[in-house]
Structures are given as C-alpha cells and as structure tokens.
Sequence to fold (358 residues):
Amino acid sequence: MSKSNWLFIAFILYAMHLFIFPPASSAGHLEPFKHSPFPQNNPQTPEKVELGKMLFFDRRLSGDGTMSCATCHIPELGLSDGQAISLSYPTTKNWRNSPTLINVAFSKFLFHDGRAETLEDQALFPMMSSFEMNQNLDFVEEEIRSVPEYLKRFNEVFGSDDITRERMAMAIAAFERTLISRNAPLDSYLNDNMDALSPEAKTGYEIFTGKGKCTECHYNINLSDDKFHALNVPEHPEFQTDPRVAATRRFVAKLNHYEDFRNLQEDPGRYLITKDKNDWRAFKTPTLRDIAKTGPYMHNGVFETLEDVIDFLDQGGGPGNAVLKPLHLNGAEKRALKVFMVEALSGDDIIMHTPKIP
Fold:
C-alpha cells in the first residue's frame, strides 16, 4: 500500500476516534446545591455557630470599637457592603471590594488574591489589617476574656474558658459556613424541573453554557473554578489618584516584599502572594451565586451593574489580556444572559437577626 493510502486511512481512523471520543471541553459542569462542606478539625455545633455569630457582630474586634465583621458584610446587601471598595478604619482607605460571604464555605481560597486557604485563617486578617479593623490580636483576646458571658460560652463550646485568637477564628468560621444560598431556581432546573426558569432565563442559560463561554470559569456548585485570572480589569478612576488608596497599595506591597512598592500604580493581584509573573493582576474567580445582590463588581468595584460586567466580558476583557476573546453577543443575548444571572442564580434571602452582644 502506498504512503498516501496509509495517510488517508490514518486520517479516517483519527476522524472516527474524534467522533466517538470527542475531546473534553474546557468548560465545567453546573451542579445543583447539595450540602455544605465542614472541616473535620473544626466540627460544626449550634453553640459554636451562635458564638461565632456574636463575635461576627461584636465591635470589640476592631481597634477603636467602631467596626465588626458585619460592617463590611451586611446581610441585606448580599453579605457585602454595596460599595465599590470596602469600608476602612477611620482616616484610612481600603483598596479592594468587599467580597460576599455567601457560599464562602465552598471556597478553596479566600480574598481576591487567595492569600488564605481556610476561613479560620481568613477571619484574623481583617482584624489585624491597619486599614480595616486595626486590632491587636493579643489585646482582643484580653478584651473578649474580660466578658463573663464569653467565658461561659467558650467553656461550653471548647471545653475550657481559654479564649484565644484561634478559637475565636474557629467560631467565626463555623458561623460563616452557615451563610448558604439555597433554593435558587437554577438548582431546581438542574434537577430536571424545566418550569423553574422563564423562557428568557432559559435562553440566558444556553448562552451562559454556550456562546457566552461563562462555564469555562464559573461552574460546579459555587459557580467558580477557584482559580485566578488576569482579565486586565481597569483601575477604578475614582480611587486611582486618591492618596489614601495609594498609601494602602504601597503598604500592602511593602508587607509582601515587592521591591518597587513606592512606584506602584496598580493592583498587582495574586502576584503579591505568589511572585509568579503570570499572576500579575490576576484575581480569584468570584461565585455567581446571588450575584444580583452583591454589586458593585470586580476586585475594585469598577463596574456598577451586571450590564457593565457583561459588556466588559463581551468585548474580550481589558486590553492585552490573554484569557478572554470577544464574544460578539447581540443586545437580546446580553439581556437574556442578565435575566438568567438575576433570576436563576438568586437564592432565598439570608434572614439574620443581630444577636445580643454581651
């Protein structure tokens, strides 16, 4: 048999292989909500959750007693704070948006740059941060230890009244793992209830999983790949020249041993954590659960609306990024995509009553 005939047969066999075993798509699968994960080293109990809730709302956790965790994670605002960049300690300015705590139990990395991998670690960062709660952890242990009601509750939860930062973080983390988005129409739709979505939301679902390529980064139960991507999101024009934001940017870069911190004009993102040039301006893929409740959007709140976000993604992200390509969605497709995100991804409101702080 001639070489050309062999090549032809090989091509046919390869084509048949692709037909029978098509290559795996880079897109992930959407999964309905099933259950919340809990770590074995911090077992969940109602008493621990209640203690964590009290600490979450307790302003003693800040240096001057004006802020609590709930200051920047407001239940009525999707457990974010509704502002472009998060609130900050008096006289300072934050530099990043307050991420929602909805479904945070599912996250493999915490913060926009992923510097914490557990909720227990995450809980202590804002307390210590000079431009957030600005608290000394040695001091806050003594503050909480001075409250008889807390001594009693720590003894009930942990078997002794030894109040430590680690135990405080464990209790707060236990509470945060209860902040779950439930009963979203998407879950019912994925469980074969075809009436769970309106016709336009169904069209949006097809765009989300198809032409829009959203499931390349937003999939699984939490609609996130837990990875970091440099989309070249623009700097927020309102804050780019704010001297307080600049001071915070330089301070964080200095803490993370970035040599040229004095001349830094943009947010390096995950690069400050990994020092990998591929992570320059890369940020964690956020959950899309309850996305309609958690604007403004992106790590710096530069986009006020979901329409702004969709337009940004449709144009292929920011100039020079290597992650996205233009989608060429028309107006009707953009509207359907937004309807899906608002209608299908919104779970029951998380109703929360502020506990009595001892």
